[in-house]
Amino acid sequence: MITVNGNTVTVSTRTLDAVLEGGALTSLRNKEGREYLPGASSDSPALDIVFRGSDARAVKGCPHGSVTCISLSDTCAEIRFDALDGNGVLTLTEDEETGDLCVEPEVSSARYGVLAARWTVSGFGEDMRLTAPFFQGVDMDPADELIRGRRWIWPHRWEAGLAILHDSEGGFWVHCRDTAYRAKALLTGVDRSLSFDAEAWGPIDRSLSAGGLVWRINVFRGGWDTPAAIYRDWLWEAYRLERDERRRPGWQKDIRLALSWAPADRDLLTALSKKVDPKTVLLHVPHWRTHPYDQYYPDFTPSEQFRDFLRYANSMGFHVMPHANSVDMDPSMPEYKYVGDFKYRDIENGTLMGWSWGIPMPHTNNSLDGNRQYNVMVKIHPGLALWRSILAENIEKALHGAAHRACVPHPRRTGGGRRGPQRDHHAEAVLRPGASLRLQPQRRAPCPHRTLRPEPVPVRAALRPLRLQRSGRA
Length: 474
Known about the structure:
29 strands
């Protein structure tokens, strides 16, 4: 039930009771009456319009502004904001099945460069801890200097659209059920607040609005794993992960040791075999090509040393995963003239998003071509069919040249640029003795002309991240 009385909205679902005053969430209680926002008030922030360059402008409480609350039904209401810098709407709905309070923010302005609609929850108690998928998962005091005052971009740093605040008895959580791969971010405030950004599609040069994501807030009893399990189960069903699970080769379930950045060294294999069953070991090998590391992509020609290493590893039963790169490429390579127009760019300032060692990212064609020694690479949008075709052809040639059991190109973790991905799409190649090579392209990425967001390939885990690149049009 959602009722409106002036500028106060009262919400009562089967799991929670909440109050919003002037658009700010001032009270959140469970059905036993426990208050989770003791420090919130009508002066708390509610909705901001975020322009490029982290320029956030409140559309609540500003001079010459107004707030209007409108009841649309017993389970839906809207809060409208009128301000000098822009307008905003918070649409509130009750999910009668889950008890969630669903909040959908939208902002608009006559000023170009709108990046995000920011909805804020503040005033939670000092005894509350934050569990969130940062750094593969943290459970920390929100005031800890490691995480406070930071903006966590999804999915680079905020690895799933989920945040849980809790103590020993329970707490509340916020999540979104996004199946369209919308760009989003979480801001951990310095004043015990969390802000949730729903970002506009890039490019934002002439963007006048943002929104379109629904944030769900609810309370729970027990540990943080209670809401995390709800989110995991939704994720599993929404992304049809059971289908993807069935595609995995059976040997993956037997892996007990994964060794990253392993050298192509026979002595290492001999030593490992004395400690663990090689059939339960997966080796990620970065140095396996004829070229220096992180140069000459997308050439994946295997070296003779690696061929010899792979034969020995497979004879012992090890699974080997040669390191590949499915987004970054060397702009001095001939393939660049075919795909170079589809580079990643920062959504706010248009700078190239790439990778280099020892020098800043170059921004002229001459400097992109002439600095291979600094491992200069640009990121090519995997939504481009031509790029995927080039990768599949080159990787297939490489693996036929070194064909043995279970060679899986490994997508590198990248960190070049504020909007760079950590893990990208890849084609999984499964080779077995006596069998022909099978390239299995993962779920197809949308065309960059339409959506600007490649699809991730989700995997099952409690909070295993979804990874995809967040970028503007190249």
